[in-house]
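Hi! If you just cloned this repository, the fastest way to understand the data is to look at a raw example. We've pasted two of them here, unedited. The first protein comes first, obviously.
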Amino acid sequence: MKLAGISGTKRKAHLRAKIEELKTNSKIQNIRDLYRCISDFKKGYQSKCNIVKDEKGDLVADSHGIVARWRNYFCQLFNVVGVTGGEGGAGRNTCSRTTST
């Protein structure tokens, strides 16, 4: 019960701070931030999930693994093997095909 009271007071303090931010943006005619804050307020909390599947279908959750997976995906998609890289880069593969496991 005590935990619910603490989170409730923090939530109220957060809402008061957001309302003050809206008032400030309205007073100083900062329309872009005003509408951005209103939009965020209307949407509420949006959870984010940063998980992708690798070539085998396994889930990858760490940021380096996700970046490596996207790199490999786009390399396969655009088929960059054998593309010239400008001066002196003929036949050079500009994409590393290593995967992290």
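Ok, and the second one:
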Amino acid sequence: MSDSVPTEPSLDLGRWRQAIQEEYAAVARDPGRGYHFHTGRPLARMLGYHDDWLEGVPEGSIASFAGTGNPFRSAHLRPGERVVDIGSGAGLDSLIAAKMVGPSGRVIGVDMDTGDARNGEEECEPCRGRPCGVPRRPGRVVTRP
């Protein structure tokens, strides 16, 4: 019998973050490929997103949606409110929030994948000046953007 105490496996946070970024970047590039998690409109329906919330949202943001919940089930946004969407990914929640708060409100999306953040702004370029134009910033929950 050994008196040694088992050690916890080490976790390389850099590799872990990289793997997450690569997976979500793949969803953004090819949302229809099929993943070990649900995506797109089917996921939005499962989570209780209303069809009218999705009206006018760029189809690419809907198709690459890979969220983990529906923040609008418990938070009813009003015109003029300010929102920070941390972990904004494809930007679906940010775009819905922007529609809800209207031109007098403000929404900023923050995501750890800077490439995804840039792609989100490019995709929404046709919506600039309308409520769906949402600025995106790179950042993590543990650091301010």
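That's it. A detail worth noticing about the second one: Residues 13-29 form the longest helix (17 residues).
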